Amino acid sequence: MLKVDNISASYGKVRAITDVSLEVREGEVVALLGVNGAGKSTTLKTISGLLRTQDGSIHFQDERIDRLSPEKIARRRIVHVPEGRRLFPGLTVRENLIMGTSNHKVSKVDLNHRLDYVLEIFPDLKPLYSQLSWSLSGGQQQMVAIGRGLMADPVILMLDEPSLGLAPVIVKQVFKTIRDINARGVTVLLVEQNAHLSLQVAHRAYLIETGRIVREDDADTLLHDENLQKEMLGAGF
Ligand SMILES: Nc1ncnc2c1ncn2[C@@H]1O[C@H](COP(=O)(O)OP(=O)(O)O)[C@@H](O)[C@H]1O
Ligand SMILES: [Mg+2]
C-alpha cells in the first residue's frame, strides 16, 4: 500500500535520513522505532510531502507521490498526526476536530457522522467538546490530535510519538486506541521511542539509527530479542 524506496532527505546541508526503505501493507500497524534524533519524524515528513526527498521514491497504492504537494498527498487520505499535538489552542475541541477535514470536501451529514465516530472512539472527549483546547491535559490533547486525524477518514494514519510526555496510564490508553483504530480498518504507521509498548500493538517494525534503517522484523521477534532490549535500553524497554 505504502512503499518507500531508498529515500534520503536533508535540512539545508545537514543530512537527516539516508537510503530509507520501508513498506506498509493494508491493514497493518507498522512501527518505526528509534531514539531521539534518529530520523523518525523526518521520514514521516517526507511521506506527507512536508519535506522533499533527494533521491529514491515513495509510492502509495501504486501511484508515485513523492513529488506531489502536501495538500494532494492529504487528499489521498494519507494522514499525518504530527509530533507535539499542534492543536489550535483558542479553538474548542469540536472546532479542532473539524480542522481535520480542511483538505477534503465533506457534506454536513458526513461531518456529523465523523464527529460521532471520533466520540465513539474517544468517549472521554464528549464532556470536553466545547472547551478550548489549551485547557485540556496532555492526554486529552493527544486524543483530540488523533481524533482530528480520524476526521480526514484516513486510509493510512501516521502517528508521530503519540505517547510522548504522557503519564503511564494515559500512554496505555493511547496504545489501546491505536489497536481499536486498526481493528476498524485503518492502516497505521506508528513512530515511537517507546519500543516495548509499540511492539505490542504493531505487526512489524523497523529500527532506525542515525538516519538509516538498521533492522526490520516481526514485532513478536523483536519483542523477545534480548540483545535488542539491551541495545534499546533507555528507549522504552
Ligand atoms: N528543522 C530541522 N532543521 C535542521 N535539522 C533538523 C531539523 N529537524 C530535524 N533535524 C535533524 O535531523 C535529524 C533527524 O531528526 P528527526 O527526524 O526529528 O528525528 P526523530 O524524529 O527520530 O527524533 C536530527 O539530527 C535532527 O537534529
Ligand atoms: Mg521526532
Using brief descriptors, characterize the structure shown.
six-stranded mixed β-sheet, binds adenosine-5'-diphosphate, 9 helices, alpha/beta, 10 strands, globular, single chain
Characterization of the model:
By secondary structure, the protein is an alpha/beta fold. The chain has a domain of 160 residues: Rossmann fold, CATH 3.40.50.300. Helices cover 35% and strands 26% of the residues. The protein is built from nine helices and ten strands. The strands form two sheets. Strands 6-7-8-3-9-10 form a six-stranded mixed sheet, with helices on both faces. It has a four-stranded antiparallel sheet with strand order 2-1-4-5, covered by helices on one side. Strand 9 and strand 10 form a beta hairpin. Helix 3 packs parallel to helix 5 and helix 4 runs antiparallel to helix 5. The longest helix has 16 residues. It is globular, with a radius of gyration of 17 Å. It starts with a strand and ends in a 6-residue tail after the last helix. 41% of the residues are buried. The structure holds adenosine-5'-diphosphate (ADP) and magnesium ion (MG). Adenosine-5'-diphosphate binds next to strand 2 and helix 1.
Q: Major sheet: order of its strands?
A: 6-7-8-3-9-10
Largest sheet: 6 strands, mixed
Residue-averaged pLDDT? 94
Output the CATH homologous superfamily of the domain at 2-84 and 155-231: P-loop containing nucleotide triphosphate hydrolases
Uncertain segments are none
Beta-strand percent range: 25-35%
Could you please say which CATH topology of the domain at 2-84 and 155-231 applies here? Rossmann fold
Bound molecules: adenosine-5'-diphosphate, magnesium ion
Instruction: Work out the helix count.
Output: 9
Shape designation:
globular
Distance between the termini: 30 Å
Q: How many strands appear in the DSSP assignment?
A: 10
Cα-based radius of gyration, to the nearest Å: 17 Å
Helix/strand structural class? alpha/beta
Broad CATH class of the domain at 2-84 and 155-231: Alpha Beta
Helix content: 25-40%
